[in-house]
Queue: 4 jobs
Job 1
Amino acid sequence: MPTHTGSGFSECTDSFQAGAEAAAAALAQAGVSACALAILMTTSRHNPHQFLAGVRAVLGPQTQVLGSYAVGVITNTCLGYDGYQCGVAVVASDTIRVNLFLEEHLANNEYACGHALAQQVLGQAYDSPPNLLFFYDSVNRTTGRFRMNMGTPLLAGMSDALGGQWPAAAGAGTMGDMQFRESFQWFNDRILSCSATALVLSGGGVRLHQVIMHGCRPASAYHTVTKAEGPIILEIDHRPATELLADLVGGDSGLTFEDYGWFITLGVNKGDKWGPFREQDYANRMCVGVDRKRNALVMVEPDLVEGSEIQLMRRAFDFEYIYTETRNLLAAIAADGRRPLLAFYIDCAGRAGAYSGNDQEEAREVQKALGTIPLLGFYSGVEIAQLPSGNVVPLDWTGVLCIWSEVV
């Protein structure tokens, strides 16, 4: 059987019915009655057990299942967040091989968890180069209080296990809502929290392509982090971090320190420092709060260490750029004699219109550019992409479009 893919969406408030509706719609788009793989995404409004039961009622027990909670879901024609949105993508193929991997005990153990997950991936034999998509639970409520599971040490563990030689790879830190309530993941018939999971597609000439779409441009010269503790930046250019940021933002901005959380974004240029601006060379880091006692910035990730060169980034959506980058990726796939199978869009939750102050949704540009190519996207906590150098890094305020393809 040639490869068939499809995606489905539901906003039904009954979790069982929502799972069944989304799964049935995905099979219908794929034009099949059964599938080898299903990827599930739903907001925290749904009961994870009932949602999975609804999916299983349609797909049956033989389908391998992977998925996670998400702030919102995106398919070809539907998009929504903070409600009862859910989505299912299916893959049916006689040539593509599906391998799923799970590593538990992520909480306060990110490096070891990532190392063990990558070792599992390495331990499997593949007939062709593997293509890796992985998720980790961003929300840690093992003590009852919220703490973020960090992507930087998780990726460091994975990279060390892989010897720095990454296959084609992308991933995400997931969460079910912007209130950071307990989040869940699916791994076949298991429902877990604080875990890392991975999907590897191989064989059949399958290949993973991706493009990074930022939405930020530099708004300052380079500055240097001169004191940091984990994800907390204490000093920049030997000055209290908030003091220097206040100067960069400007007194006429109307922003107070309380506004810095989820607004201030710092960028690290991983390309030519003095070359022309290239979105794909930047890893952006979002500030999530301010430590007023220490005049410090609290960041999503702990990788802005002493000596890191940063720039203040200005958020600006260029909708034409998002559409064009998507079309360029599709053109490159076609030029290589391949056809797109399934698109997967990992989109920062902060880019959603309601959170970014836009009256438009940038994900609509991805939908328009993809047309009828099956799409499952979701709003994430952390986006993970592969830079042109081959390194895999966590990102913020970013959209990462992944497309699997096969030879025509």
Job 2
Amino acid sequence: MMLTSDLLRVKKSRGAIVPRYLDVDDEVARERAQALVAIFESHQGKARALVDERVEEAIGHGTDFLIWRGLAKLLYDRSEFEVRAQVAPEVVREALFLEAARAGNPHREDARRRILERVGESLGVSPEACEVALYADLEERQVLSAFKTIDAEGLLHRYNLALAQAVLYRALTLKVHLQGQNSGRLRHLFQMLKFHRLMHRTERTGKGYVIEVDGPASVLKGGRRYGLAMAKFLPALLHLKGWTLEAVVDWDNKERTFALGPQDGLQSARRVRGQWLAEEEQWFEERFSEKAPEGWRLERRGQVVDLGDNEVLVTDYVLTGPGGREVLLEIVGTWRASYLRRRLERLAALKSERPVILVVSERLRGDREKLEAGAVGVVFYKGVILVDKVVEAACQALGEGAEVRPG
């Protein structure tokens, strides 16, 4: 749910992009927003053509039509339209066209009626049902089957968030400053970075952290999809306090800045719920007890590791061996070879009793350069994280040996 480029309302000021947010407390804006919501609420079960007509009437032709088109777009995104017909339209069309070809002159009204009757009889439906099904899959004839309702205030907040996300969609780089964060919310933020496969580097400051996120310009295969991931990441920030965001965006083929913070009043309806697990991580956890040697334990527990020069990484798991010694695991999604080398160089310089292993997706490499084979402290996977490879790497990191069941 994001505004398209033709619906953006921004101004350029001294090399910066400034979104023109709506005043959520404005009574006129709330009334018009509620009028749009009411159209979708009252037209469930009606054809899309009728919904479109009522929306166009509500939008009108004033100078502020971009606002109302943007709000309408967000409401369409909350809607589901479906084909409603007793028989699949393509089946009816094929049967009718074949019967019409046999009839020879189907343009006469009585001939048309007989064709509908014969086809309906062969398909077990009425002639009227055949006629309804004939073009029921056209967009304008699809029916509004479900609408996730929202109040006027919520819609205006959603518009402002969508506007900021549309700007971030064009981000080249992103920098987030954090201060005084709750540890649970901070873990959620790093989980969302991993969920959206965003390459990031975290530095510790005197009062918090600075997170730098690379944009699509540095991820050759990511393109705009990576910009979309950066935009989708934004709601996770809104649950925090003491944060600011600075981005460099590609706007009209020029680099411009974009700044955001709590003072902008953005809100997200998305709730912070527990810990998110990627499918491959869930499978890894489920299989660990079955495949790992006796005495090895895996715990989902984030740890902040200092890499020197105030740089840190946040791991995902703690792996404990039979002797009680621990190895930390970080799951790495999107990456470049230079990014991974930097991580490994920093880790190699650490004098830590708890070594770190990087579990790296081969499918999400961000450049064409491959890391040297046999890199110490790295386990590659292609969709499935192999338990034996992880434990083998952990034993190597601890200077121990272990028998591991394949898998």
Job 3
Amino acid sequence: MMPATLLHSRSLAAALVVTFLSGCSLMPTYERPDAPVPAGWQQSDTGDARLPAAADIGWQQYFADARLRELIGLALQNNRDLRVAALNIEAARAQYGVARADQLPTVGAGASMTRSRTAADASPSGRETLGNIYSANLASTGFELDFFGRVRSMSTAALNQYLATQEARDAAQISLIAEVAKAYVAQRTADEAMRISKMALDSREKTYRLAKLRFNAGVISAIDLRQNETLIESAHADYAAQTRLREQAGNALALLIGQPVPANLPPALPLGKQVAVNALPVGMSSDVLLRRPDIRQSEYQLQAANANIGAARAAFFPRISLTGSFGSVSRELDGLFTGPNMAWSFMPQISLPIFDFGRNQSNLDLANARKNIAVAQYEKSIQGAFREVADQLAARRTLADQLAAQERGYQAERERLRLVQMRYDNGISSSLDLLDAQRQSYALEQALLLTRQAAMNNRIDLYKVLGGGLVDVTAVTPVSAR
């Protein structure tokens, strides 16, 4: 008989070997690729360094318009695209649960009854016999001993796909908030454009009535009168176009919030007041891009591809699985759990690929190729994000100069219109001079309005591309008030 100490030593050694093999993994060590972008942006305007980053500013703080905040809240509750993204998270979580469960044995309970008849010729007693066999057992079927980390690699890949799905949902939320804000700004712009068009129409109708009196008196020609009529119809067409744009903007908002726009929303702020003042610092490192959920999503997908390489490598090595059961068997139901009726079975299986005609090697090559694709996609996502921020920073700087210049030009044109109107009323300037001044003033005011819309959209987009829109706060305190 083997000495107890030797038996104990061999058992301990076997346990250590199993533990070592269980900890073995053929998955490559993950290393984050270097970001293929500069360390920062060339813009010199750094903003207020005391302000937090965009990703740390809640959307309730960033947007100052209470009406807009209400619309964003409705969109986060009802938008169908965001709901689909959330359901995708549930599906990915369930898939990860399935993969993780493969690391542990599955134990099931079963019971059976077999009734059989033995023919007389086959019976030892020479008489036909009837018999019953009852059994009850606990069994584990096909549990794989994950010596080479195949199952763990697949579970890691499923985990990273699940995390990537969560990031996709966060990216969808950021995009949704920006879309709602821009649709709301478009609606406010259309409102303002309708107001300007109506004022221009009223002014031109007044001018036309005066021109008609002068035409009847023989002061002006029919050409001047028809010119006034042309401008009136042009103003009618502009007003109809702005009405259409306003209705379409309302339809876009209804789609984004998942319901008709409520009538009891808070009062709207004037165009240009939707965003808190000086809410974003822009003198920053490009490392802030790593906080964007779409970048994190791309990195999780890269890590999943890296884990799949481990599973493909493990396919070259033996796979060991265990099947076993423990229970009781009896010819009598009353004696199933009494007496010497214990029964058990234990069946280890090992399989080793020998000739697979390159299937495992092709699977490994495929896993490596997919990882290289994921690396390229990760780098491309960072480059795209860097360009988005750079574009918005350039637009922020140039739009401010453009807006200031257009405001000065519009004020100068308004003064010219006032002077021409006075000269026309006193019979000094012709109707053509007045119509030209009205036309120019109206065009500059419309252009100024569109630039204000572009400036507001730029502030919304800058908040979006810097990863803002995930923080949810209950107490709304505009950043500009800090």
Job 4
Amino acid sequence: MSETSPQVRPQVVLGVSGGIAAYKACELLRRFTESGHQVTVVPTAAALHFVGEATWAALSGRPAATETWDRVHEVPHVRIGQGADLVVVAPATADLLAKAAHGMADDLLTNTLLTARCPVVFAPAMHTEMWEHPATQENVATLRRRGAVVLEPAVGRLTGKDTGKGRLPDPDAIFAACRRVLARGAGAADLAGRHVVVSAGGTREALDPVRFLGNRSSGKQGYALAVTAAARGARVTLLAANVELPDPAGVDVVRVTSALELREAAVKAAADADVVVMAAAVADFRPAVYAAGKIKKVEGEEPAPVALVRNPDILAELSAHRTHPSQLVVGFAAETDRVLENGRAKLARKGCDLLVVNEVGEDKVFGTDSNEAVLLAADGAEVPVPLGSKEQLADLVWDQVAARFGTRPLTD
């Protein structure tokens, strides 16, 4: 979504619940107001212990809505949610998630959540133990099934000396996710309740402690698939192979190096996944022997040949051994010649549902911010994707996936 003109003025409700991360919502509010959104801040009573009403009013340019009984003639507990284009709650505490999941309405924010008919985004923040508790996980799953976008919390420093998963995602990253949700509008969360696994980057196969066989994949396309899936309501696991990009907001990131590590992570993550998208560039071969010490150059002698062995075909394995009948598998094929011919042959050989085929070369695809491709489907459909951003391609992939889900059951 581009920067919004004052004439459009999307109506955003920023809910703030009572966690120490409430102060970070000030930066999120600033990003919304500076990009032309009209924001109504609805803090809970607990949130006001961390950031006062005057601060919210000053930053938003509007009175903060704090009490159900203020301006009763305007029926604020109904009107605020009804008039919103987006509701985002940041931070969303375990208590707030529980109330939202169970339809409780004991304050203005929870009333607003019940009356909103627009997309709703939750950015959780809490201690690791609270996030991992089965009650919280069930509440999150319930909200996702209903169509809410619940971002995964980040990993990092928490309150006091604690470190772990539960940190509020970066405000800029939350804002970027919200822009994607706003841009899609109604039906934005068409992947709600689904678990999506995406691989990204390129594997490295060690030759010795300092050398490896690798490729030029930057991981940008895989990351674009992850962030767009999260904005469409999915729970996303991103398998990142040697990627030097910041972690996307609301995504679980698992870091791997080699093809064998990626295979192990992919098989594990696919166990309860609704769709697996293998966008990583996986090395076909690895050195047969790993040298424990650096291979030295010997004057006057030619280097010894490097024997290679095949790596496992992860895409074919995942396609052949799906963990449940409704699971979808999507592959990527980077070709340098006879692109469609090779792509169709690969689709048949791998056994996946969709194959994204693109032409690669010296200045094509790898490391760039744009991509063009053809989406080949096992049912014979072929969808050309013109040159555009990698996020645009990612959204078209998810459009095809969502269409094929149809009435397929959720895995959880």
